[in-house]
Amino acid sequence: MQYLVSECHKVLATLDNGSPSSNSMDWFKHLCADVYHNIHAGVKHPFKSADYLPDLEGPPRLAQSVLQASTQYNIADTVCDNIILILRQWLSFPNNAQMVAAYFMMYIVG
Fold first, then answer.
1. pLDDT per residue over 63-99, tens digit each?
2. How far is the first Cα of the chain from the last one, in angstroms, to the nearest whole number?
3. How far apart are CA 77 and CA 8, in angstroms?
4. What pTM value is reported for the model?
C-alpha cells in the first residue's frame, strides 16, 4: 500500500496545470488526475473500473470518491487515500475489519 501512496504522490507532483504530461499517460495517472480534479472541485464522482482498466475481469465496478479535502488535510494525501479506496472497491479488497484480522494473523504467524 505504501508503494501506491508513493506513486500517487509522484504523479500529483508532476501535474502540469492539473493534467499529467501527455507523453506518459497510463491508467494510474489518469485516475490520479481525475480524482484530483474532482476533489479540488469539491464534487463526488463515480469512477467506473472499465474507464481505467478495461481488461479487468468481471463486470465493470463503480467506486465513489468519498473523502473531501479540508484545510487541515493535504489535498495530495486526500487524493491518494481516495485512490486506495477506489482500487480496493474495484478489486474487492477486504474491508478494514478483515484487514485488521489479516494483519493480526500475519503478526502471530510471522
1. 877 666 665 568 888 899 899 889 888 887 766 677 7
2. 19
3. 9
4. 0.74
